[in-house]
Design goal:
Layout lengths: L1 H12 L5 E16 L8 E13 L4 E5 L2 E3 L2 E4 L4 E9 L2 E8 L2 E21 L2 E6 L7 E12 L4 E13 L5 E3 L2 E4 L3 E12 L1 E2 L1
Length: 198
Amino acid sequence: MLVMAASMGMSAQNEVKHFSLKPIVGLAATTFYGDGAQGSKLRWGVAGGVEVEYQATQKFSVSAIPMYGMGGAMLEDGDLVWKNDKIMIPVLANYYVAPGFKLSLGLQPGFVVKSSLYAKINGNSVDFDASKSTRTFDFAIPLGICYEFTNGLSVGILWHMGVTKVMDNEMIIGDVNVGKDDFMNTGGVLTLGYKFKL
Protein backbone atom coordinates (compact mmCIF):
# COMPACT_ATOMS: atom_id res chain seq x y z
CA MET A 1 0.00 0.00 0.00
CA LEU A 2 2.85 2.40 0.83
CA VAL A 3 4.47 1.59 -2.51
CA MET A 4 1.19 2.32 -4.31
CA ALA A 5 0.81 5.63 -2.47
CA ALA A 6 4.36 6.60 -3.32
CA SER A 7 3.78 5.73 -6.97
CA MET A 8 0.60 7.81 -7.06
CA GLY A 9 2.47 10.74 -5.55
CA MET A 10 5.21 10.43 -8.15
CA SER A 11 2.65 10.19 -10.93
CA ALA A 12 0.78 13.27 -9.72
CA GLN A 13 3.92 15.35 -9.66
CA ASN A 14 5.83 14.00 -12.66
CA GLU A 15 3.51 13.52 -15.60
CA VAL A 16 5.69 12.16 -18.37
CA LYS A 17 6.17 14.21 -21.55
CA HIS A 18 4.74 17.35 -19.98
CA PHE A 19 6.19 20.73 -19.09
CA SER A 20 5.87 22.36 -15.70
CA LEU A 21 6.56 25.85 -14.41
CA LYS A 22 7.89 26.70 -10.96
CA PRO A 23 8.40 30.29 -9.75
CA ILE A 24 11.08 30.36 -7.05
CA VAL A 25 12.45 32.81 -4.50
CA GLY A 26 15.51 32.24 -2.42
CA LEU A 27 18.15 33.29 0.07
CA ALA A 28 21.56 33.53 -1.59
CA ALA A 29 24.98 33.18 0.04
CA THR A 30 28.05 33.70 -2.15
CA THR A 31 31.79 34.28 -1.82
CA PHE A 32 35.05 34.05 -3.81
CA TYR A 33 37.63 31.26 -3.96
CA GLY A 34 41.04 30.87 -5.56
CA ASP A 35 44.17 33.05 -5.82
CA GLY A 36 43.62 36.42 -4.17
CA ALA A 37 40.39 35.39 -2.41
CA GLN A 38 41.94 35.11 1.04
CA GLY A 39 39.72 36.78 3.62
CA SER A 40 36.59 36.54 1.47
CA LYS A 41 33.45 35.86 3.47
CA LEU A 42 29.83 35.13 2.60
CA ARG A 43 27.71 37.89 1.20
CA TRP A 44 24.02 37.28 1.88
CA GLY A 45 21.32 38.37 -0.53
CA VAL A 46 18.19 37.32 -2.38
CA ALA A 47 17.45 35.53 -5.63
CA GLY A 48 14.39 34.84 -7.72
CA GLY A 49 13.40 33.26 -10.99
CA VAL A 50 11.35 30.54 -12.61
CA GLU A 51 12.13 26.90 -13.44
CA VAL A 52 10.83 25.42 -16.68
CA GLU A 53 11.00 21.61 -16.54
CA TYR A 54 10.29 18.87 -19.06
CA GLN A 55 9.58 15.44 -17.60
CA ALA A 56 11.11 12.95 -20.06
CA THR A 57 10.45 9.85 -17.91
CA GLN A 58 9.19 9.15 -14.39
CA LYS A 59 12.76 9.41 -13.12
CA PHE A 60 14.47 11.86 -15.48
CA SER A 61 13.80 15.47 -16.46
CA VAL A 62 15.61 18.48 -17.87
CA SER A 63 15.08 22.06 -16.76
CA ALA A 64 16.30 25.63 -17.07
CA ILE A 65 16.05 28.29 -14.36
CA PRO A 66 16.47 31.89 -15.56
CA MET A 67 17.04 33.78 -12.31
CA TYR A 68 18.45 36.97 -10.85
CA GLY A 69 20.75 36.64 -7.87
CA MET A 70 22.76 38.89 -5.62
CA GLY A 71 26.39 37.72 -5.55
CA GLY A 72 29.92 38.68 -4.64
CA ALA A 73 31.61 38.57 -1.27
CA MET A 74 32.35 40.40 1.95
CA LEU A 75 35.97 41.55 2.12
CA GLU A 76 38.31 42.97 4.77
CA ASP A 77 36.28 41.76 7.77
CA GLY A 78 33.07 43.23 6.36
CA ASP A 79 34.45 46.74 5.79
CA LEU A 80 34.25 46.22 2.04
CA VAL A 81 31.62 44.45 -0.07
CA TRP A 82 32.11 43.43 -3.69
CA LYS A 83 28.63 43.33 -5.20
CA ASN A 84 28.64 41.02 -8.21
CA ASP A 85 24.97 40.58 -9.10
CA LYS A 86 23.98 38.64 -12.17
CA ILE A 87 21.37 36.88 -14.24
CA MET A 88 22.06 33.14 -14.14
CA ILE A 89 20.56 30.38 -16.28
CA PRO A 90 21.24 26.95 -14.75
CA VAL A 91 20.48 24.23 -17.31
CA LEU A 92 20.01 20.99 -15.38
CA ALA A 93 19.62 17.27 -15.81
CA ASN A 94 17.41 16.03 -12.96
CA TYR A 95 17.10 12.53 -11.54
CA TYR A 96 14.28 11.61 -9.15
CA VAL A 97 15.82 9.20 -6.65
CA ALA A 98 12.51 8.91 -4.75
CA PRO A 99 9.00 10.34 -5.14
CA GLY A 100 9.34 14.14 -5.05
CA PHE A 101 13.06 14.04 -4.31
CA LYS A 102 15.44 15.01 -7.11
CA LEU A 103 19.16 15.56 -7.61
CA SER A 104 20.41 17.93 -10.31
CA LEU A 105 23.62 18.58 -12.22
CA GLY A 106 24.25 20.89 -15.14
CA LEU A 107 25.87 23.95 -16.69
CA GLN A 108 25.26 27.57 -15.72
CA PRO A 109 25.99 30.59 -17.91
CA GLY A 110 25.65 33.92 -16.16
CA PHE A 111 25.64 37.60 -17.12
CA VAL A 112 26.85 40.23 -14.65
CA VAL A 113 24.42 43.15 -14.36
CA LYS A 114 26.10 44.99 -11.49
CA SER A 115 29.67 45.00 -10.22
CA SER A 116 30.66 47.50 -7.57
CA LEU A 117 32.73 47.90 -4.42
CA TYR A 118 30.79 49.22 -1.44
CA ALA A 119 32.51 50.64 1.61
CA LYS A 120 31.92 53.00 4.51
CA ILE A 121 34.64 55.62 4.91
CA ASN A 122 34.44 58.05 7.83
CA GLY A 123 30.75 57.31 8.19
CA ASN A 124 30.04 57.92 4.50
CA SER A 125 28.92 55.22 2.05
CA VAL A 126 30.98 54.90 -1.13
CA ASP A 127 29.95 52.73 -4.09
CA PHE A 128 32.75 52.38 -6.67
CA ASP A 129 31.89 51.09 -10.13
CA ALA A 130 33.95 47.93 -10.76
CA SER A 131 32.37 46.97 -14.08
CA LYS A 132 35.49 47.86 -16.13
CA SER A 133 37.49 45.31 -14.12
CA THR A 134 34.84 42.58 -14.07
CA ARG A 135 34.18 39.86 -16.62
CA THR A 136 30.63 40.33 -17.90
CA PHE A 137 30.10 36.63 -18.74
CA ASP A 138 30.28 34.04 -15.99
CA PHE A 139 30.25 30.26 -16.24
CA ALA A 140 29.68 27.77 -13.41
CA ILE A 141 28.82 24.15 -12.61
CA PRO A 142 25.54 23.93 -10.64
CA LEU A 143 24.46 21.13 -8.32
CA GLY A 144 21.01 20.88 -6.83
CA ILE A 145 18.88 18.97 -4.38
CA CYS A 146 15.14 19.53 -4.11
CA TYR A 147 12.07 18.05 -2.48
CA GLU A 148 8.68 18.62 -4.10
CA PHE A 149 5.54 18.10 -2.02
CA THR A 150 2.41 16.67 -3.65
CA ASN A 151 0.63 20.04 -3.24
CA GLY A 152 3.19 21.71 -5.55
CA LEU A 153 5.36 23.41 -2.95
CA SER A 154 9.09 22.68 -3.03
CA VAL A 155 12.24 23.47 -1.07
CA GLY A 156 15.73 23.07 -2.43
CA ILE A 157 19.35 24.11 -2.52
CA LEU A 158 21.07 25.11 -5.75
CA TRP A 159 24.84 25.43 -5.35
CA HIS A 160 27.35 26.50 -7.98
CA MET A 161 31.11 26.48 -8.45
CA GLY A 162 32.41 29.16 -10.83
CA VAL A 163 34.96 28.17 -13.46
CA THR A 164 35.59 31.64 -14.93
CA LYS A 165 37.56 34.38 -13.18
CA VAL A 166 35.69 37.36 -11.76
CA MET A 167 38.26 39.94 -12.85
CA ASP A 168 38.88 40.68 -16.51
CA ASN A 169 41.21 43.68 -16.14
CA GLU A 170 43.29 45.38 -13.47
CA MET A 171 41.27 47.50 -11.07
CA ILE A 172 42.15 51.18 -10.71
CA ILE A 173 40.56 53.21 -7.91
CA GLY A 174 41.43 56.88 -8.31
CA ASP A 175 45.17 56.90 -8.96
CA VAL A 176 45.76 53.55 -7.25
CA ASN A 177 46.20 50.38 -9.30
CA VAL A 178 44.78 47.62 -7.09
CA GLY A 179 45.84 44.94 -9.57
CA LYS A 180 44.16 41.78 -10.78
CA ASP A 181 43.62 38.47 -8.97
CA ASP A 182 42.50 35.07 -10.23
CA PHE A 183 39.54 34.34 -7.93
CA MET A 184 36.16 32.89 -8.93
CA ASN A 185 32.58 32.83 -7.67
CA THR A 186 30.97 30.16 -5.58
CA GLY A 187 27.83 29.96 -3.49
CA GLY A 188 24.30 28.68 -3.19
CA VAL A 189 20.63 29.57 -3.02
CA LEU A 190 18.10 28.13 -0.59
CA THR A 191 14.90 28.12 -2.64
CA LEU A 192 11.16 27.99 -2.06
CA GLY A 193 8.95 27.34 -5.07
CA TYR A 194 5.53 26.30 -6.31
CA LYS A 195 5.30 23.88 -9.25
CA PHE A 196 2.36 23.54 -11.57
CA LYS A 197 1.82 21.72 -14.86
CA LEU A 198 1.47 23.66 -18.10
